[in-house]
Amino acid sequence: MSASQGPTLRELAVQALSSVEHGYDLLAPKFDHTPYRTPQPVLEAVTRTLSGLGPFGRGLDLCCGTGAGIPVLGAVCRERVAGVDFSAGMLAVARDRTHEAVDWVRADVRALPFAPAAFDLVVSFGAFGHFLPGERPGLFAQVRSVLGPGGRFAFPVAAPPRPGSLGYWTLLGFDTAMRVRNAVWRPRFVMYYRDFGLADVTRELADTGFRVDLYALDELGRRPDGSPRCRLVVATAV
């Protein structure tokens, strides 16, 4: 995070003790200067892979935040694109910083306010830790409902850190801290990224009416055993 432009420790603490929605409203002006924004190499790798599968018609960025994923849609969609998020603060920043023609919609993505088959491509970046495992099937069903036949739902998933590695202990520590915080403080702030396992998510997508394909994002490197550091999940509505 940028020391000069990113949030202070005090601001992060206030955010963490808020609800998810209000916390992101508070963080929005400095969000793009935090590690939570999707890195540009990830956005570029996803764009390259989707370009090989498109072009697409209408596109939606699910949990769009400040709009980092909108240029991805702009590169692969021929028609108008939209972004949906429940944080008014994040959407306000997105409107100010995005020059493309975008329909910005404030809504809870667990109840998408769009007509059936309204989109041909839905993307999402880094948002699924904010949903409990039991909420994911309903969320995936919502996405399925707004996709036309053959429409795609795409999102990157990083390989989990190796057990015992620094990344493993860092993620475990963060997860544990969030669970302790939610046990003693209200409102809850749901952010449990260790619960987002690729095998479970693939099964849940299939159960919701998707065919799932995985694409290695080779630009982002491979691990010592040769497996990709990041994959793009592409779920096709069947």
From TrEMBL:
Sorted UniProt keywords: Methyltransferase, Transferase
GO annotation, biological process: methylation
Segments forming domain Methyltransferase: 60-151
A GO MF label: methyltransferase activity
Spans through the membrane: none
Pfam assignment, any one: Methyltransf_25
PANTHER family: METHYLTRANSFERASE
Protein name (Swiss-Prot/TrEMBL): Class I SAM-dependent methyltransferase
